[in-house]
From TrEMBL:
Record's keyword annotation contains Acyltransferase: no
Keyword set includes Chaperone: no
Domain Flagellar basal-body/hook protein C-terminal: 90-134
Family: Belongs to the flagella basal body rod proteins family.
Name recorded for this polypeptide: Flagellar basal-body rod protein FlgC
Location of this chain's protein in the cell: Bacterial flagellum basal body
Amino acid sequence: MDALTTAVKVAGTGLGAQSERMRVVSENLANAQSTSDIPGGDPYQRKTISFAAELDRESGGSMVNISAIARDSTAFPLEYQPGHEAADENGYVKMPNVNMLVEMADMREANRGYEANLQVMKQARELISMTIDLLRST
């Protein structure tokens, strides 16, 4: 397998990984205020995503794979809201352990990673096209 095809394949796995990362971040943002339906119950628990590099024996390229989508084990912040349906006997509600600033930073980073991989694919495709054009003209 040639280097350009390998570059496209590696960038493709990067696109898939960053796309999945954006989905996880979006889910966290969408549930940033999702509390429990029962008094004292646990709210939405933030999800995290981990990646791993895997060698593709055919191409020799290092591909990106999702190694795990897990739950963040940090403590749930408590808010005093005695009238809330999820409030415990002391009037405190467990809120999701989602930090909007962290999620927005993660989303920006995932977006930049996606764009970088997309640029690699565009450049490789352009080089492949130029190579084909050169072969036609000879």
